[in-house]
């Protein structure tokens, strides 16, 4: 099985005037890399972002890529992330569009 994987610690949001913490920047960079891979690769079956500090905003970017990805992702692990009600709605929309997703953690 092929999977995209990242794991990290929760980060906190800071005002725009402050410098972006390195961990947040790294997460954004990793999500951007995953999005690029999802756009062109049809081999991804699992997406694991456990305890990565993923927010609703980053989740929305990732789900947009998943919706258009040629990969048949069947498992998404988002355990221990800061996903709120908007993120849950984003995930429900994804599952309606991609019924092959049979595992959402």
TrEMBL record:
SUPFAM superfamilies, alphabetized: RNI-like
Gene3D superfamilies registered for this protein in UniProt: Ribonuclease Inhibitor (3.80.10.10)
Region (Disordered): 1-22
Species for this entry: Synaphobranchus kaupii (Kaup's arrowtooth eel)
InterPro entries hit by this protein: LRR_dom_sf
Protein name (database record): Uncharacterized protein
């Amino acid at each position: 099985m092929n999977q995209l994987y990242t794991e990290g610690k929760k980060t906190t949001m800071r005002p725009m005037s402050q410098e972006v913490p390195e961990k947040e920047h790294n997460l954004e960079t990793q999500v951007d890399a995953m999005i690029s891979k999802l756009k062109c690769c049809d081999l991804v079956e699992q997406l694991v972002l456990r305890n990565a500090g993923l927010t609703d905003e980053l989740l929305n970017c990732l789900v947009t890529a998943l919706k258009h990805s040629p990969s048949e992702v069947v498992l998404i692990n988002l355990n221990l992330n800061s996903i709120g009600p908007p993120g849950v709605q984003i995930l429900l929309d994804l599952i309606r569009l991609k019924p092959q997703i049979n595992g959402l953690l």
